[in-house]
Amino acid sequence: MEPFLKQITGHLYRRYGKELSSLTIVFPNRRPAIFFRKYLSEFITAPVWMPRTLTINELMEDLSSLIPADEVTLITTLYEIYKKEKKTGETLDNFYYWGEVMLSDFDDIDKYLVNASDLFKNLSMLKSFEGIFDYLTPEQIEAIRTYWNHFNSEHRSRHKEEFIEVWNIMSVVYNKYRKQLKEQGIGYPGMIFREAAENTELPNGRRYVFAGFNALNKCEHKLFSRLKKNGQAIFFWDYDELYIKDKAYESGLFLRGNIRDFPPETIPGYEFNRLTHTEKHIECIAVPSVTGQAALLPVLLKDIETSSDTAIVLADESLLTAVLSAIPDTISELNITMGYPLHLTPIYSFIDALTDLQRNARKTNSGIWFWHKQVLKLINHQYLRLLYPEKTQQINAAINRDNIIYVNQSMLGDLNKEAPLFISLNDTKELPSYLLLILQAIARHIQGDRHSETAEYLFHTVKGLNRYKDIIEKSRFNLSTESQYRLLMKILKTIRIPFSGEPLKGLQVIGLMETRLLDFNRIILLSANEGTLPKTSVTPSYIPYNLRSGFGLPTIEHQDAIFAYYFYRLLQGAKHCTLIYGTATEATQRLGMSRYLYQLKYDEYFTLHEKQVVFTINTAQKRSISINRDTTTEEKLAVYCNAGNEYLSASALNTFLNCKLRFYFRYISQMNEPDQVTEDIDPATLGNLLHHAMYNIYREAGNKTITAGWINKTAGNTTLLYEAVDQAFHEIFFNNTKNEQTIAGRNIIIREVLIKYLKIILTKDEQYTPFTILSTEEKLIATIPINNKKIKIGGRIDRIDKKENIIRIVDYKTGEVKNKIKTIESLFERGTKRNTIVLQMLLYGWLYNEQFKTSGNPVIPVIYPVRQLIEESFNGKLILDKQEINNFSDIAGIYTQCLTELLTELFDSTQPYTQTDDLTECANCAYTRICRR
Questions:
Q1: Predicted structure pTM score
Q2: Fold of the domain spanning 282-335+503-529+555-612
Q3: Burial environment of residue 630 by CB neighbours within 10 A (0 to 12, 13 to 18, 19 or more)
């Protein structure tokens, strides 16, 4: 059977022929007009004047003296009136959302011809409703009475009082708002509809054809009635007898009344029974996820070429991106009816990054500073890389390498050549011009088809920016800086970018509302889920449900009936229907089959073929990684035997004991973790800061006797302590960067913690005085013979001091430390919880012994864990099997033997580098992505 719209077109042509131009064809939306003209071209055999085609909105605008205003103008005008009546200091950006809600309510009030003065009466104080609503039915009056009875209580809640406060001004706001808009000759859709419906002068001699309508608002109903009475209207209703005759189907709720009030013109030979008298194959497919639905498209479309008889219908339009990505390359022609939201495009994120940069720019005597995260976000954006491909990479590397938290404008000067990007605006009113200059620079670099979508994004963004600029310049109220930024992003968020395409060719990707009056042989409906089809969310409104129901405004039941009609009408003309829904739990909602699919399933007129897609997820087998040694690895290891500065540290030896493969990655392949800016101090950095601050305090005291008086004087010199810490920050945390860096945020607290740690260490040192500092931060290197090789071992020791004839090797620790071990051998055993700190301290003792074999003095490794130093009994010595180690020489033999065995294994060319069996070691490993553990 031919599409219903084609039947209408043929009927009108046969009846009116060359008089077609006297008709005005009115559709619910634009798309049917395109198909109407196509069908008409197939019928005509000689030139004729085309009839005028309009949407219902365009017809209402024709019959009204008002011009549609854009949303921003409507909201800002409403804000001015609301602010004055409410006497509130609420900002525009905070009002914007509620302004949209209020505007939507006013739109409904006008479209449904509601008496706003009656609606917005404060009826909570009235004892009787008699005589107020004579024009309403008893059921409507009862709904209103039920609602307001909740407010008769003497003890109202705060929320009820706030509601009444707003409610009491709504009528005044509504009337003043309409009056001000009318004086400007503009209006919102409902206002235009109301004026058109109440317009007593209708065009004479013109006949209107209304086709494809369903739920009529009161304005449409009033206009249709007047045109029908004047003999100026012809009606065609797109329906099926199944849901018209059986009132159990909510899909026919509105059409049953429409057919009664506005009988349709008969199309000879056309039967309204396509749902039950046309052969249909309806399959229903359950998919485990929302986005997984799009993944089915290549399979469903494999036998389809560029056919306009096939439509992918999106009940949830947010799936558009996933759908476009899934359509196979074999589909060469494609038409998309939906606009793409600007906020999902790269241009929106780019402007968002630019506004963030400006909001947080800081001006000081030393210049303009930007927070590193906002700078990195911008220089890593695809549009800035388009302008400066090399320079952005260089600056990115420098910021991460030097840990630059606040970036000075001077560092970014080369990125201001094409447009003044990294500047600080003097006034937020300069923001539109600032952004437009940058977008113009991007536009100059766009060439070829590859960037055609970017050009489209830019065009619509520039339009939005110009609109915003106009509002800011003409604004009669002061907007705060923050309000201006947020208002801009809200304006851009409302923009939708239309897709170009040939509407009559190719695969159709279409929204559910756009399918009205269109028929396709094959449909693929996505997101046929309860909650999406129909939408269960209630549109936000100031007007409560009972009042909506009482005054005949649309409610959730109204919305459900509309969606039911869309669904069944979509199935009418299709021979093959694929209905897909998700089954998994997504965020806060449980996905499941739409109620309409259940209706099909249990309806005697339909056969539903149910399928379920199961995604088999096979986790990849974790192959154990083993790297055999070769000439290259041996050459890399050889650096620890050659002359030079390379040596094996305690950290390297502990790494090899923990995981040989990790040792390979870190010390053989030298795969270092990428640099990254760190704002917060991690434990390792905190330790380095403490070490360096203590070095700054003791570095001038070499070979001097440290007395209690010297320590007291030093600990009491607050300026000296802060200088020691600040210097440590500059050299360790800020990596000696030339840019001016300041300690800020939580690092100020870390700074105070470090001062406290310094005082704790100095207090502990005071108890040990007098002693002499031999060295601080000294690097010791010694060799050990292994298989005719001399292996270099080394380490940087925090402090070496001497008291009488005792040498102490001191290491500062910021975390809690266990200083006890059972045996020396346990330090070198794999598969056990080894004490890596004790291994390190004994290695330092071994290094000192090897370096100064002739000293003959007792050498004692000592740990200074700051948190434990406050304990009077804690002396920091290592404990072996419950005995303090008072001289490294006592255990030097067994330690050297264990160290030799470890190094022999490390340099054994037959031993591969393998993964550890202890998975706890993988928890904080930098190379887990390689091992997939």
A1: 0.70
A2: Rossmann fold (3.40.50)
A3: exposed
